Amino acid sequence: MKVSTFSRIDSKSLGYIFLIFVFYCIGCDSQKKKGTDLTELTYIPSGILGLPDIPVPKNNPQSNDKVSLGAKLYSDKRFSSDGTVSCATCHKPEQAFVDKLKVSKGIKNLTGTRNAPTVLNAVYYKSQFWDGRRNDLEGQSKDPLLNPVEHGLSSHDDLIKVVKSDPEYTSRFKSVFGIDSDSIQIDHVAMAIASFERTIVSGNSPFDRYRFGKDEKALSESAIRGLNLYMGKARCQDCHTIGETYAIFIDDKFHNLGVGFKRIQPKLEEILQKKAESKNSPTSDEEILTNLESSELGRFAVTGVSEDLGAFKTPTLRNIALTSPYMHDGSLTTLEKVIDLYDRGGETNPFLSSGIRPLGLSGQEKADLLSFLKSLTSPVLPSMPK
Amino acid sequence: MEEGKLSRKDFLRRTGGLLAASIVPMSLVEIACGGRGKGTHEKFTFAFISDPHLTHIKGTNFVRNFDNGLNKAIETVNLMFPRPDFVVFGGDLAQLGKREELDHGMELLSKLKVPVKFVIGEHDYYLDMGNYWQDKISKLNYSFDHKGVHFVVLNSILTYDNWIKRWKTPEERMNEMARLDNPNGSPFMVGDDQIAWLKKDLEDIKSGTPLVVLSHSPLYKIYKPWNFWTDDAEQIQSVLSKFDNVTVFHGHVHQVLYNQIKNISFYALMSTAWPWPYPESYTQSPHYIPKMTVFMNRQDPFHERDGTGWAFVNMDNAREEMHYKLWENKDRIVKYDESAGHPVDSTYQKPETRILPQTHY
């Protein structure tokens, strides 16, 4: 399939997204995000087949100017210690918002421990990062800036200094947030980036046309058989959920499939004892990305609950054919290998998610499932606003 | 609390907080809780694992799902810090009492890093009448003291001799007893010999001593057709009546269940293998499900561990606090409530706070 790099979401849906909210907030106090689950949301119709309404925090309404400012911030490499890394470095707009690497490369070619998830449809997650350590896009955007293997800034002030020294930024922050240069804070930056990311949505795939558009010819026979397997014998539906009127292919939960778990299994007691001694304080973002063992703790790093050991967030399957390699550590290079992992019931370990079990899929069934997964690719992907 | 007496919590608060618990010489602290008698015991934790029903297929093959349940509980207990003082194993290690199953179970349980106190279940017993268990694993009834609490282990799954003699082979007998809803079944009992032993064991124990009884079947009557039942329960309750504070922990019913009968609090545990429904879903015969019990919500059939789990028990202030660890579901803490006079779920007791069953696509 051909991905048009700078093609646009169809104008109707852009109109929905951009024209509904053009609010200008008044003071920076009201703009500060608390990063709690209690953020009140409003919903904008996505206008795209197969996608639900887009959740938008009431305290960070969408506007064209804010989205465009966010896109500029998203692409600015000056927000890294050596001027080489922006958000777009690992979440490339021209590559379905991933980097196609096993694990991402940050400043000085340093590598982390995690495979970059796509920004496409990330707006729909109830938590961000593979371990869900942030609740929203605003909270997510601030962490990589300070991580020593990503942007490597010593503090958010480094970024704010760059912003304040750039007249184009100061005038745009003024028009978007109604604030003077002195008042610009990292939260404003985060809000603008998040607003941009809320426009990075895609649906209308052959699957959507078949399931929600009632176009029986949209899928091949093999893909239709694959969809039936997906809903039944292959047991995909329970976590990568397809709804009645839309599908984002997630359950907002965390599951242990055993991938990478053997790296930490011998050290679990030592790790848990340390965790108990530190009164279960959450594992830092830096440690997760710089320490292979800590990375494998998964959701446990956030909750300290042993049930969450090695559990990672269910990712969307939209555009999955474009976003290899797979899994939190990028350890599986092809969809065939992912299907094989599920077919053998994951990698055995005591914390294996209990829905995971051997499936007994035949070669034909695996091929059909693959056809179906390939039908989840959108014909047009969103790109950067001009 | 009596006036002028310090509760243990107050005492600790005034002596540097709860963190000091481990260094406070508890033997010097007299506990008085709400007129429930006096005992001296220090805080400790034990884990409770029950009903894994390990099932032999052939050779070295066992049912994967049930192995997974027990392994998960063992691994989780080993990762508890601070470690519990010991694990109570509540019975039904095997599905059909086979040596392969008991050996396999012991091999898995040997990974536990703390001692295990064993209770036998009917699935472990009725193939060879408990011989292999007694030979390789544990006595069937015994008692021990731990940090000021007296523990008694009972074999509560005995039954009438006539029923035992009724079957042609040990396998037939085992298979009949292994069925839940079996018209050919026979009710469980502790039996006169063991009741006599129990009386003797408790003779010299002061009535203020916290007493914990561990059994497989519930030591009260819930639902006879499923053998959620102990035929001589009233006799046992009467032997325990002189104590201020008695707690029974039992397995067998594969569900969250708690009750209070006079001076005795009862707590059941989920299985690590599968959940049973509540007998009230079956209306053919009367049942005596405790009104105070907040039921587990309906299990999600996709997740084979939902409705299963284990528990750890905090023994503090001469009272237990039961932490139900429900996998794939919400954990629950149930503890004795002085004002209510029975165990209460700390979160879900009020009807409006209960968890609704999962909706499934």
List the main descriptive attributes of the protein structure presented here:
heterodimer; A: 386 residues; mainly alpha; Cytochrome Bc1 Complex, Chain D, domain 2; 2 domains; two-stranded antiparallel ribbon; 16 helices; 34% helix; disordered N terminus; B: 361 residues; alpha/beta; Purple Acid Phosphatase, chain A, domain 2; 7-stranded mixed beta sheet; 6-stranded mixed beta sheet; 22% strand; globular
CATH architecture of the largest domain in chain A: Orthogonal Bundle
Strand content of chain B: 15-25%
Number of domains of chain A: 2
SS content category of chain A: mainly alpha
Could you tell me the mean pLDDT of chain A? 90
* CA-CA gap between termini of chain B: 52 Å
- By CATH, the topology of chain B is Purple Acid Phosphatase, chain A, domain 2
Number of helices of chain A: 16
CATH class group of the largest domain in chain A: Mainly Alpha
Q: Which segments of chain B are poorly predicted (pLDDT under 50) over 5 or more consecutive residues?
A: 1-38
Going by CATH, what is the homologous superfamily of chain B? Metallo-dependent phosphatases
Protein model, in words:
Chain A has 386 residues and is mainly alpha-helical. In chain A, 34% of the residues lie in helices and 4% in strands. In chain A, the strands form two sheets. Chain A has a two-stranded antiparallel ribbon with strand order 1-2. In chain A, helix 10 crosses helix 16. The relative contact order of chain A is 0.16. Residues 1-36 of chain A have low confidence and may be disordered. With 361 residues, chain B is of the alpha/beta class. Chain B has one domain (44-353): Metallo-dependent phosphatases (Purple Acid Phosphatase, chain A, domain 2), CATH 3.60.21. Chain B has helices spanning 8-14, 64-78, 99-109, 122-125, 131-136, 161-165, 170-178, 192-202, 233-239, and strands at residues 31-32, 38-39, 44-49, 56-58, 61-62, 86-89, 116-118, 142-146, 149-153, 211-215, 246-250, 257-261, 264-268, 309-316, 319-326, 332-337, 342-345. The chains are: A mainly alpha (386), B alpha/beta (361). At the A-B interface, helix 11 of A face helix 2 of B.
